Sequence to fold (71 residues):
Amino acid sequence: MAKTIQFALSTDYIELCNLLKLVGLADSGGRGKMMVAEGLVQVDGLIEYRKTAKIRSGQMVSVADSNIAVQ
Fold:
């Protein structure tokens, strides 16, 4: 069963690689970028290859068995 992490935005958006680092799914921004480049990250059900994709409130980011609900 996938675990869901709630993430509250304090700005209009967050870059995808930074989000992965802030919620603890990547140990660094560089690792977050590698995960995106390897096609391991989905945004709203679609694989996302843009490392600095702007993630906004209401979007769902999925990595392996974890989901990040951005609010």
